[in-house]
Amino acid sequence: MPKLASREGVESPTPMRRAGDRGLILLGQVWAWLFLVILVAFFSITTPHFFDLFNFQSMGANAAVMLVLALGQTFVIITGGIDLSVGYVMGLATIVISMTMQALVGYPFPVVVLAGLLAGLSVGVAAGLINGAIIAKLQVPPFIATLGTLGIAQGLAYVLSGGPPVSIPLPGLGTLGNGYLFYYHATYGFSMFAVPEGVTGPEIRNVRGFIPFQILYAGIFTAFLAWLLASTRFGRHVYAIGGSAKAALRAGIPVQRNLFKVYVLSSVMASLAGFMYVLRYTGGVANSGDAMMLSSIAAIVIGGASLLGGEGRILGTLVGAMIIAVIQNGLVLLGIDPFWQYAAVGVVIILAVLADQAKFRIRR
Q1: Which residues contact 73 (CB under 8 A, 6 or more apart)?
Q2: DSSP secondary structure, 29-84, as one string
Q3: Which of 80, 83, 81 has the alpha carbon at shortest distance from 9?
Q4: How many CB atoms lie within 10 A of CB 278?
Q5: What is the pTM assigned to this prediction?
Q6: Residues 146-198: pLDDT tens digits?
């Protein structure tokens, strides 16, 4: 994992001399993967329908929006900041996208979808510019700045929508959010993007879909941001700022400009998560991202990112999102009250923070 500088006021890590310490550090790096395997094994044994392709696809599709929301936030947390506004920016984006598409119904389908996407991106860019200006230029702590943006986005979403969901009467829109890349029927074979020709009536029930579009979208965003963080100068600067902003500045890294980019990226990913939500539910809801905000931050922390900055990976965020999705899905299949999902995720977050603290103490 790239780490270009030490945290503020802390000496650079020294080489590990004891095999025990190296083992504990390695365990701290891979515990999320081990925990995921244990969870999958546990729910596969205790519930009859968990280890099923359809269930895995459904679980992945449900977690895709939350994952995309977390991807941009990962950059923010690596810099040592936090973006509390992402869930509400996503909610505002779903409303703006839905109202834009609703107003354009009757125009060609691609025009309506593209206009909705651009409208959502404009919300993300605007929110990111506001956060970036307040945090990078005015030196306001990220917690306070994004708390203010949270309130603005939440208020605008309710003012524009009036409260109720905004639906989009556009045939075919739901297919973009709920379709599959491949379809298979034992008699009619494989086809892409739509059920095989000739399948009609009750035979539709025997068609199986593979790779939901939601997973495909999230996979593309995940691959791109993983490359951006791991293989570009911008990614290296993000780690350097999180390790020590002062040291990064002395090294000639434009800290303010990069912080600006990080917060714009976070808000843009929130708006893209909103667009995926609109495709899946063919409409927008002002509070659609409220619950996902906590889950997205949890996914990043569980995946190994440190809230102190300087550490984190996109792959780790992916694992964290998968752990949360497995917990939520497994508890539902076990028939446990859904409210226990929040408690279970909270316990996992505490474990992740304790693992990070232990790793940090050993390195010192």
Answers
A1: 82, 83, 86, 266, 269, 296, 297, 300
A2: HHHHHHHHHHHHHHHHHH-TTSS-HHHHHHHHHHHHHHHHHHHHHHHHHHTT---T
A3: 80
A4: 31
A5: 0.89
A6: 999 999 999 999 999 998 999 999 998 999 999 999 998 888 888 888 888 88
